Amino acid sequence: MPRFLACPSRRFCFTRHLFTRHLFTRHLFTWLLFAGLLASWSPLSANAAPGKDAERPPNILFILADDVGVDAIGCYGGSSYPTPRIDALAKQGLRYEHGFSMPSCHPTRITLLTGRYPFHLGHPKWGTFPKADEQKTVAHLLKKAGYATAIAGKWQLVLMKDEPDHIAKLGFDESCVFGWHEGPRYYEPMIYQNGKVRDDVKDRFGPDVYVEFLVDFMKRNRERPFFAYYSMALCHDVTDDLEAPVPFGPQGHYDTFVEMMQKMDERVGRIVDSVKELGLADNTVIVFTGDNGTAFSYLHTAENGKYIRVPVFSMYHGELIQGGKTKLTNGGTHVPLIVVGPHVQGGVTSDLVDFSDMLPTFAQLAGVPVPADWKVDGQSCARLWGDYEAKPRTWAFAEGSRGRAWVRTQRYKLYTTGEFYDLVEDPKEQTSLTQPSADAAAVQKELQATLDTLGV
Ligand SMILES: [Ca+2]
């Protein structure tokens, strides 16, 4: 039997528990009949392959750092910031060399939640989510599979004051997020919990509140599968569009990028430790990634009511480079992607992944099909996460803010504008290939066909 076909039996094992309880109270005869069916399914459950818990699908802890590209992470070749906890995750699990985001926050989050590229959703305006797709999110899909769902940190898909129930509408049972463009996210934070502003966090550091909330959520739901989405505030700089500058930290300025990286790594460690402390390490898949490349600059302080920006330069493979957020280059779209789990194959993989893959991947872990009418762009990338049937994708996609987009392989990248780059020879995309080799030309042709099929 193909491995993927074994999935429904595992899903069946989990759902049958809930289902049989329901039937028992409703109709004893039906229950007995169903019990007979269970007996016929049992051997499949007993022989569940590695990666498939006989009782329930795995928990998913999805950690999304803000404005952190590969150049900022030690195990990817960054050397400006110590990232011991993230590096330890990579050592323990699987590190992707070719994980790609959109070049900025909002389109990445849209793609993550829907499995669709933003242009297929009509390029949702910054800070909005398409109304027609509110029921078609990864959170709704996981809820359908019996998961408890929660998000902590950044939402960004609506102004919370306008629509405090927006997160619940999109499928999250619980939430603890900062008031994006409404108040501070770090010091003296403004935090909405389940749609209501908390009045007990003024003296707290926001990121500590987000971690605490999610750890508590995992603790309360440890007897059932859960989807914990840790949408980190770190390492994005402070909010800059309020009437007055937001409060400094105790040091008299905002955290430097170095300090933010350190705090980000610490909190990743804290939430990963909590999974172990709760006894959930054997049934939890942890994913760490970033929503776009490293910030180009950040707000370091404010004087006379005006913010002062400082550039972010990082040492990456021995070269000092500036963060590339918002650009479609590697600097803006090449993000860390590390996966840890009880059955995840360790090491480094060259598989391509983009954010449209998360929804179908998590659906496969949960054992639920993605409805065909959702028209998801991605595909499961779980082939190395356990015994899951999935094929590596042959291209990844990203789109910028002005309709410009690309598809790429590990080596070559073709833009909608026709520019074509060999990223091994020319990682900074300085010279578009006008006379590609025969091999490169063949890839170019395939990538063009992909762009044509996508209709971008
Ligand atoms: Ca971001």
From TrEMBL:
Q: Could you list this entry's UniProt keywords, alphabetically sorted.
A: Hydrolase
List the Pfam families hit by this protein, alphabetically.
Answer: Sulfatase
**Domain Sulfatase N-terminal, residue spans:** 58-368
Q: Has the keyword Amino-acid biosynthesis been applied to this entry?
A: no
The record's section on InterPro entries has:
Alkaline_phosphatase_core_sf, Sulfatase, Sulfatase_N
Classification via SUPFAM superfamilies: Alkaline phosphatase-like
What Enzyme Commission number(s) apply to this enzyme? 3.1.6.1
Which domain of life, per UniProt? Bacteria
Q: Which family does it belong to?
A: Belongs to the sulfatase family.
Q: What is this protein called?
A: Arylsulfatase
Q: Which organism is it from?
A: Lignipirellula cremea
Upper classification of the source organism reads:
Bacteria, Pseudomonadati, Planctomycetota, Planctomycetia, Pirellulales
